[in-house]
Amino acid sequence: MVVSSSNEETQASPESTYDRKSKLQAFDNTKAGVKGLVDAGITKIPTFFIHPPQNVKDFTGLSKTQFSFPVIDLDGIDKDTNKREKIVERIREASETWGFFQVLNHGIPTSILEEMLDGIRKFHEQETEIKKQYYTRDFTKRVGFHSNFDLFTSPAANWRDTVYCLIAPNPPQPEEFPQVCREIMIEYSKQVMRFGRSLLELLSEALGLSPNHLIEMECAESLLLICHYYPACPEPNLTLGTAKHSDNDFVTVLLQDNIEGLQVLHQNQWVDVPPIPGALVVNVGDLLQLITNDKFKSVEHRVLASNAGPRISVASFLGRDSGPSSKVYAPIKELLSENNPAKYRATTSKEYGDYYRAKGLDGTSALLHFKL
């Protein structure tokens, strides 16, 4: 293994010769990811995974909060008008105040959710030599595997590996999907696209617009699956599974397993998102905050590292730059007024995504760059 298994460098003086870039390159060259470190039996995490003290100081006592994370049951939404109105109102309230909510009875069978999590586990736990075929930093590829998309630009690396698929508008050929999870990835993608369109109808109604408004804006035309694997960490108090960030899409639909770790920043407190069997987590993305002119909030969230694991999650990004499109997005004119002028300049999802990736997960919002 070419990566140092010690973090003794952290005790070195600022003038030390710790060569961060070469350490990152050596880690990247293994193409084995964080799981490769764990498989090698490390007991100390490499220095480049250690986050600044201010980012890891508030890990304890977090679940002792007075907040109750919103859970919305969609059962009967298409059969009962009164029930639909109440559900839309709850979605509006959650999107304005939390930027997050969990949904039950969303229409995707539990068996498919479980099979998808199992498929992602199998991908990450297969022989490294097979996974290496997919390892890439060329994010124009429709299918790929990597550890930390911003490995060389972020202040500290996150304790996770990722397999991703650009599903829409130009899906990969079946043989491009990893064989170990091919069938379930294709099936889950169909299910989540269908649910995503229903979700955008509800969000449109919650904005007081026609149900098709966000769909007609092409917010559901693209889909990217980002499937994370968070191995057990020997020093979880020093690093993060995913650093504080918001998402660069319209809406994210997250499938998580039963291991805790996801947290949302709500009223300046980190609140746990409890795993609920069969539920999906929904969150507002930056582009939805932009086009709703701050009515709906793209809220910062993170994933803690843990000595339990692996933790597995599948994030479905709706409306991210996964296809060439010149579609321009700006605050929706129906939501603007003399007292509520546009707060953001127009942009494309590609421009936004390019800026977001170049900036990396540095703890600040990419939205600030697009403010008027």
TrEMBL record:
**Which Pfam families does the entry mention?**
2OG-FeII_Oxy, DIOX_N
User: How is this protein named in the record?
Assistant: Fe2OG dioxygenase domain-containing protein
Q: Where is the composition biased (Polar residues)?
A: 1-16
State the residue spans of region: Disordered: 1-21
Q: Which InterPro entries match?
A: DIOX_N, IPNS-like_FE2OG_OXY, IPNS-like_sf, Oxoglu/Fe-dep_dioxygenase_dom
Annotated Fe2OG dioxygenase domain residues: 219-320
Q: Which family does it belong to?
A: Belongs to the iron/ascorbate-dependent oxidoreductase family.
Natural source organism: Rehmannia glutinosa
Which keywords does this Swiss-Prot/TrEMBL entry list?
Answer: Iron, Metal-binding, Oxidoreductase
